[in-house]
Design brief:
mainly beta, 9-stranded mixed sheet, 11% helix, 2 helices
Length: 293
């Protein structure tokens, strides 16, 4: 099944148009870049963009088996970059934005597995920026992250990763977009290498278990993710979520689990430029089982 030409700009909207997708079968989502593919040249002017169409996500789709209180399992089976990349630097935006006096747009040709940045060839490592469900309350802009997922901009969300999200509404109402050909932790200049893409996902629903924040796993690590307007609070939420996983799996006390985290775990920063900031805690799978059976 292919989902395309169906874009939302706030997770939780468009439910009356949601298309149903199957579980345990591949579904392909055709996504635009974060600028809705409006920038095609470096001399395109940002002030001429339709800013109401920024950060689109393809969806929403209904997962019929999903019920409020369940966990939605999302296996990322493939990410295909389908166009050249765009990056921007804007005054007042990002970690260094207060040092900028003008807007700069850069187009990066994508060729033979590399993004070409001037004379540098940057190996592609595609990842998903926006991936989430309808939130608990009112719709949330696709530019913002939260417990529903959303714009977490976490570089671990690449092919081979499995993401787990809490379901707040029957049907889940899932959407995905904002793919990057590559992006460093922090996304400090607001953009990664923004690209259109085709994303292949497989959905499943976990019954009888619940989570408060997104979780993920890949071949080597398990992760807990959290977003908050204060970075230290986001770090604390992600760290506490992992502490609870360790205590549950290994039967350790809070203090022992924390010592193990301090010995072999890592606090990692996903992004520091969105309305809420996103942190994650990573633990090697050598010490933990899979998050869910």
């Amino acid at each position: 099944m292919i989902i395309q030409d169906h874009h939302i700009f706030a997770l939780g909207e468009g439910r009356d148009k949601a298309q149903e997708v199957p579980v345990r079968m591949p579904v392909t989502f055709v996504t635009c870049d974060c600028f809705f593919n409006q920038i095609q040249r470096e001399d395109d002017a940002l002030d001429r963009l339709d800013w109401s169409r920024i950060n689109p996500a393809t969806g929403p789709v209904v997962i019929r088996e999903a019920r409020a209180g369940d966990v939605l399992k999302l296996s990322i089976k493939g990410i295909e970059v389908t166009g050249d990349g765009t990056m921007c630097a804007m005054p007042g935006a990002g970690v260094l934005g207060d040092q900028l006096g003008e807007v700069s747009i850069k187009r990066l040709p994508i060729r033979d597995g590399f993004a070409h940045f001037n004379d540098l060839r940057l190996p592609l490592d595609p990842m998903i920026g926006v991936i989430g469900l309808a939130p608990k309350g009112e719709p949330v802009s696709c530019g913002a992250p939260g417990s529903h997922g959303g714009n977490m901009d976490s570089r671990i969300l690449r092919q081979g990763t499995t993401l787990y999200l809490p379901v707040f509404h029957d049907g889940a109402f899932f959407a995905v977009g904002d793919v990057h050909a590559l992006m460093g932790d922090g996304e400090i200049m607001v953009t990664g290498v923004e690209v259109p893409a085709r994303v292949v996902l497989v959905f499943d629903v976990i019954k009888g278990q619940s989570i408060a924040h997104p979780m993920a796993e890949d071949a080597a690590f398990v992760y807990t993710l959290a977003s908050h307007e204060d970075l230290m609070t986001a770090i604390t939420l992600a760290t506490d979520s992992m502490n609870q996983v360790i205590r549950r799996q290994l039967g350790l006390s809070l203090s022992e689990a924390g010592m193990l985290q301090s010995a072999v775990g890592d606090v990692q920063i996903s992004q520091v430029v969105d309305p809420l900031l996103t942190a994650r805690f990573a633990m090697p799978k050598a010490y933990l089982k899979k998050l869910f059976d």
